[in-house]
Amino acid sequence: MTGAGPTRRAGLRAMVSAAVAVPLFAAVGAAEPRRAVPSPAREPQPVPPLRIMTFNLRVPVDQDGNSWVHRRPVMRALLKETAPHVMGTQEGQFQQLEAVWADLGPHYDWIGTPGSGDEESVAVYYDVRRLEPLEHEVFRLSDTPNVPGSNTWGAAFPRLVTRVLFRDRRDPGREFHVLNTHLDHRSAYARVRAARLIADRIRWLGPSRPVLLTGDFNAVAPTDQAYGTLLGSGLVDTWVTARERGPVFGTFNGWKALRPDGERIDWILSTPDVTVHRAWADPFTVDGRYPSDHLPVLASVSLK
User: Fold this and answer.
1) Which pLDDT score is estimated for 45?
2) Count of alpha carbons within 13 Å of 105, Cβ hemisphere only?
3) Sheet with 160-168: strands ordered across
4) Handedness of CA 225, 228, 232, 236 (dihedral sign)
5) β-strands 124-127, 244-245 pairing
């Protein structure tokens, strides 16, 4: 673990390797030893793409039809359909984080803070069958990033980043970073300072591993200065680099009908060494009910 260190609600699962000795038997009285017949060489299997998702869960403050108790079954159905390998979430409070974890199923785990008080959690969920976390940290978007609750740039609330270094079990030796965040909705200055800090942190990670940055940035792509700051640091927008894209919707729906060609404020950015097969915003509903007031945004990617 590096940095200040998040509070884990679930420990990293230990993988135990066991070596089994197989005895070799000689044939008694045989004229000559039997020779093993070599097995035909197997073609290397292609590594399936990773499904990356960013999703603002919406804090559980709504009443009536948009209350958490009504939205949770819709979210459960969405998660079962999308089955992301990595999901960065925003606005999660502890009861939601635990519920999402339970609804994803036993082959998922998560890393992040518990989301209490003014400090939300920007949790990272991952499929343990596909990914192994190697290190993780949480830092604050402020002049004192290692101080919990710190807020020095005039943001409405303390803002955080959760970073996880993963190893892909399907592609031995392949490692990559995921950073997940939620920029401020009120202060453009705080968003730009946050974007600069995130860009600096990614630069410190070095060029040897791909990076994926997920989040609700509260900034319209491609016109907001925070977006320009992050792309100016060398990141690319997976929506732009994708070989195929779904329909363009405003990613904040506010419980209303979708807006074609609306504003994208939820993004998945990456370093250029990521191939993006498809990017889409999922307009998933059940009986007309959304799981959140944001649309989940997904990308199917391969790491170079």
Assistant:
1) 78
2) 13
3) 131-140, 160-168, 175-182, 211-221, 264-270, 236-237
4) positive
5) unpaired
Structure tokens at 65: 């039809």
CATH code reported for the domain at 50-303:
3.60.10.10
pLDDT per residue over 265-294, tens digit each? 999 999 999 999 999 999 999 999 999 999
The pLDDT tens digits of the residues spanning 145-168 come to: 999 999 999 999 999 999 999 999
**pTM score:** 0.86
Among residues 255, 251, 244, 249, the alpha carbon closest in space to that of 217 is found at 251
Spatial distance between the Cα atoms of 172 and 18, rounded to a whole number of angstroms: 18
Q: How far apart are CA 202 and CA 180, in angstroms?
A: 12
Domain limits of the chain?
50-303
Say if CB 130 and CB 168 are below 8 A apart. yes
By CB neighbour count within 10 A (0-12 exposed, 13-18 middle, 19+ buried), where does 21 fall?
exposed
